[in-house]
Amino acid sequence: MARARRVKPDEQLTLVEHLDELRSRIIVVLVVLTVGIAVCFYKSEAILNFLSSPLPSNTPGHPDAAYRFLATSPLDGILTSISIAIYSALLLTMPIATYQLYAFVIPAFAEQHHKHLKPLVMMIPALFVCGVIFGWYLVVPPAITFLVTFNQQAFDYNLRAKDYIQFVLLTLLAMGIVFEMPAVMLVLARLRIMSSALMRRHWRISIVVLAVVAMLLPGVDPISFIVEFIPLLVLYGLSYFIVVAVERTRGADEPDPEPLT
Question: Is residue 7, in this structure, part of any structural domain at all?
Fold first, then answer.
């Protein structure tokens, strides 16, 4: 496997060379993803037990036992393990994929922007991890509690592991991605695409957009919507102060361009 090399900003590459570099970086991501899938498949039982911890035990006489899921097909066990391996490996691979994307895109910007964009190497993976942790502790437990206790007198919940794992891990993946909003806004501010004036002017539209994003995230219950919408508002407010800080660092003698409309 060819090692993906860093391209200098002043280096002129042909289309074939760009595609070759992109191929090399995609191969790196796929190799990491494959290794992650293999490891997570091997540890799928332990991962399943960990992810089922928010659920109350359904084993009579053993309240501390792990939740036992419903199986309706001989293939449920193996397909669930495959789902666990794929989704868990995606979570583990996201920081690597983010760095490879950064390394591929950064040469397209002028060299004077590099010192402002390099902090993203640590910022984006860190924000993604913070989003996953936030989702695991503050989004998943209340959402699961609300869903499995809603009209519980009328329903006997026997969850399928595949559906449960898909819900939990997609929620964690989505929260990790949306937590990267401040990093995205930082890049847009550095490139003068976003400004604080623009954010103040369209804050009502931004709230509506954030509400739509929260509704599109995994989880259709009102509890999930609230605990996903509030962090989006906080992240938008944090992004505003980041944009303001970027504008102040430009210097008083350097006028800002007119905000985009």
Answer: no
